[in-house]
Amino acid sequence: MEYPIALARSEREDIFDIQFDDFAKETEIFLYPNPAKNLITLHTIKAGELDIYNFAGNRLGQYNLNGSTKVNISLLKQGLYFCKFIYTDGSEEHKMFIILR
Questions:
Q1: What pTM was estimated for this model as a whole?
Q2: Which CATH architecture has domain 4-99?
Q3: Where are the domains of the chain?
Q4: Which member of 33, 68, 99, 100 has the greatest number of CB atoms within 10 A?
Q5: pLDDT above 90 as % of the chain
């Protein structure tokens, strides 16, 4: 069963549309620790771009990925966040992470 989540960003950007099934797929990227406090680590075998969104759909950051990448999340508030990975081959992957302090 699919449960779509549409997260509206600002008027300058299009709709970020994800589905819960996107989080259950076999993955090319690993994100840990989850829940996190101040830092997340991402491991991937593909190069690409990472966008981090809050629950309201606002993009909070954009990062280049290649191999192992550490992202400082210490300035983000406690809560649920979404990641959108866009690989150089055009494929996408989505993840969620939680910040608990």
A1: 0.73
A2: Sandwich (2.60)
A3: 4-99
A4: 99
A5: 64
